Amino acid sequence: MSLKELIVLATPSPLVKIFAAPYVAGDSIEKAIDTAKSLWEKKKLCSTIDLLGEELDNDEDVKDTIETYEKLIKKLGKQPYATISLKPTQLGSHRGTKHCEENIEKLVVLAGEYDNMITIDMEDHNYTDMTLEIYRNLKKKYSNVGTVLQSRLFRTKDDILSLKGLNAHIRICIGIYREPPEIALQDKTEMKKKLLEYVELLFKEGHYPAIGTHEEWVIKESINIAERLNIPKNGYEIQMLMGVPRDRLQQELVSNGITVRLYVPFATRWKYAIGYCKRRLIANPMMGVYVLKNLVKRH
Ligand SMILES: Cc1cc2nc3c(=O)[nH]c(=O)nc-3n(C[C@H](O)[C@H](O)[C@H](O)COP(=O)(O)OP(=O)(O)OC[C@H]3O[C@@H](n4cnc5c(N)ncnc54)[C@H](O)[C@@H]3O)c2cc1C
To answer: Which of 125, 151, 246, 283 is deepest in the core (most CB within 10 A)?
Structure first.
């Protein structure tokens, strides 16, 4: 474990909450929806709203999570700017794949009633098989479901090929989870080069890639690939995390007619948000310094 990981993991939760504030839309469904609406109205940015929470291992918490997602989907209603993201380990994976699939299916069906789309996030490698099994089963029945693949994993090319004919909606990203060298690349530049290979493969296999990165050269190169393959601008999108400062780039993409979607997380209970926030801070420990500077400036 690196020193920065040790420091972030040892940081007390209340401090993590302050440092991670730019990445989280708030503590209610209403705040998440307001954020998504305002991103759309002010900047023409789309969102995918996520209820923070993972590795839930009791039925009550899972029930709570399902109810919150149901309320979110109903409150969002039909609109052009916000989709939903969720994780298998917040939706019953502790009781096995079938149970988790049934829970996600309920939400996919409900979202379908509002012409909305659900993306099943990808967690660490222990859940890749489960997530893809659920995804394949659901995608055969419903068009409004997507998932995520991580370019750092050696298995990803085979996973893309295993989606043949599904017309899949795939967020392709490097992956946030540290994975062992036996199964994953360790160098970020290599992960980004692989990401570009997979963008091309996804296009060639007839899928819709959502390219999840903040790295400008990766975004520009993805667009070059799309243009070379004659993929129209509505055949892909670029995704970024709310809180990562990319205003200029986002506006440039939007004004070129490319869909940009931000990941907009919210938390109804703070304890559920800790894992996500710590991973974001490990990805960018400088965020803590920016937030402290802003706090000092304000007071
Ligand atoms: C919409 C979206 C959804 C995602 N879903 C998943 C998922 O389901 N599963 C999964 O494993 N991973 C997911 N990720 C995370 C992703 O895999 C990467 O870990 C993350 O996007 C950082 O990779 P990068 O390509 O931006 O490259 P990096 O090299 O990590 O970042 C490039 C540059 O972006 C900036 N940056 C990156 N992250 C931050 C940050 N947190 N704060 C401030 N600046 C930052 C830095 O300036 C950095 O130099 C998602 C990412 C996005 C954008």
So the answer is: 151
Name the 3-class secondary structure at 254.
helix
Quick check: is 27 catalytic? no
Stated as kind and residue range, the H or E segment containing 98 is helix 97-113
Domains held by the chain: number: 1
Any idea what the CATH number is for the domain that residue 55 is in?
Answer: 3.20.20.220
Q: What's the Cα-to-Cα distance from 105 to each of 120, 143, 284, rounded to whole Å?
A: 11, 12, 34
Ranges of residues in the chain whose predicted pLDDT is under 70: 4, 285-299
Instruction: Look at residues 84, 54, 88, 58 and name the one whose alpha carbon lies nearest to residue 69.
Output: 84
Residue nearest atom 25 in ligand 1 by C-alpha distance: 213
Query: Which residue's alpha carbon is nearest to atom 53 within ligand 1?
Result: 240
Active site residue 34: no
Q: Extract the tokens encoding 15.
A: 């401090």
Return mean pLDDT, the chain: 92
Domain carrying residue 150:
25-266
CA-wise closest residue to 119 among 144, 89, 94, 92: 144
Does 272 map to a domain? Answer: no
Ligand 1 atom at shortest distance from the alpha carbon of 87: 8
- Ligand 1 centroid distance, CA of 145 (Å): 22
Q: Which one-letter amino acid corresponds to residue 182?
A: E
What distance in angstroms lies between residue 84's CA and the mean position of ligand 1's atoms?
Answer: 18
If you write DSSP's letter for every residue of 138-173 in order, what string do you get? HHHH-SSEEEEEETTBTTHHHHHHTTTTS--EEEEE
- Residue 36 alpha carbon to ligand 1 centre in Å: 19
Q: pTM for the whole thing?
A: 0.93
